[in-house]
Amino acid sequence: MKKMLFIRFVLSIALVIAVVAPFTFLVPKPLVIVAEVSVEPEPAKVIVPVVEKVKVIEKPLHQVSLPNFAAIYDIPTKKRQFFSFIRPAIDAKNNELTQDRRKLEYWHGQISLGLGLTSAEQTSLQGLVKLYRINKQASTLQQINDLLLRVDNIPTSLVLVQAANESAWGTSRFARIGLNFFGIWCYKTGCGMVPGGRDTGAKHEVAAFQSIDAAVSGYFNNINKHNAYHVFRTIRAELRAQDQPLDAEILATGLLPYSERGAQYVLDLTDMLRHNQRYFVRSNDQQTALAD
Prior knowledge:
Largest sheet: 3 strands, antiparallel
Number of helices: 12
Shape: globular
Low-confidence stretches: 1-37, 283-292
Order of helices and strands: HHHHHHEEEHHHHHH
Helix content: 40-55%
């Protein structure tokens, strides 16, 4: 009887252990609180169409029919056509300067001999004084001497290579749109074309011309009037005083201020002068026409 009681006691103890044990050895896990998060839907992707930049075609600011120099792929042909196109205006301007210079030399002789000028000659002289910005208060002889420094030729070959260099053989935007073959600037709003790379705050434009003659005259006026080319004119006067020809390569050294590239620009011009000699020689027909 005691034995049975003992067995029941042991069984009851075992039962309690069996029931309680699983919970006794379990390690409690941390409490995780799941908060309700509102998730916004992703915005719909906006597809922006790629718009190609439309190239604006500038209309020429002149009525001159220009050859399409860019379409001439044969280099000798392009050079001949470019020089032939612009040379008549250069020759015409040099001829005009020659006539004015002869007048000045004659008037200089008259004044040196103590003879005066006629009223017509005085009027003509004062026109040149105004055109070339000579001191109006100077004596007549001094005015003529100052004019003789300015009223003079520029070698055709030098003008040709500058035109070729500055206009990329007539293909530049400024040559095509504004007949500006020499990179001449102007400073009045609307006087020409705004350079694409102009510095912020700068006001200059690249001048536009209505004819080839006007473009070439603009170049000659720049060289013969602007203070920047005083050295050029001094070299030219010295060649005249020594009864030497106006050598294009020598005169090119007076064009240092023409470009920011300075000495390298002058070297480029002299190199072009040497490599294009055969294009500067007029044919017999051209010489005959010029003489006529």
